[in-house]
Amino acid sequence: MRFKGKVFRAYALLAVFLALRAFGNLSLAWGTKHLSSALAANPLTYVRALADPFVALAIAMLIVALLVRLALLSLADLSFVLPMTAVGYAISALFGKVFLHEDVSPLRWLGVALILGGVAMVGTTSGKTPSEMDTTE
């Protein structure tokens, strides 16, 4: 039964990771959209950008997301984790449309649908290699 606990922890960490990354990216986009357009030209502007509360919050969320991904990779294979985290791209496209009022073209939505189809295929497989799925751990 311990394996079922690992599976639950893996999916719980996946959900936390997806939420942190999606909201972190949203916060980063929101914060940087309100910065000067000279951001790319002046390196000091990047340092000042860190003082923006949305940018600072985004950095914190993305750092925590990285730590959650580390924990997730300790429970499941890379070949399972990375495709499953691709759901974040779909969430980000949706957040961009809803919160940032971005124009998401039908071709982009098709790309999102393809990503979700791939995630669905990977989601039907085990998160670990067969030799590591011993339930007696």
Write the layout of secondary structure elements.
Layout: H1 2-33, H2 43-49, H3 53-75, H4 78-85, H5 87-99, H6 106-123
Helix pairs in contact: 1-3, 1-5, 4-6, 5-6
SSE string: HHHHHH
Strand count, sense and closure of the main sheet? none
Q: How large is the count of helical segments?
A: 6
User: Stretches where pLDDT falls below 50 for ≥5 residues?
Assistant: 129-137
| Strand percentage | under 5%
Number of separate strands = 0
Summarize this structure briefly.
By secondary structure, this protein is an all-alpha fold.
What does this molecule look like?
- The chain is 74% helix and 0% strand.
- It has 137 residues and is mainly α.
- It has one domain.
- Helix 4 runs antiparallel to helix 6 (106-123) and helix 5 packs antiparallel against helix 6.
Which terms would index this structure?
single chain, 137 residues, mainly alpha, 6 helices, 74% helix, globular
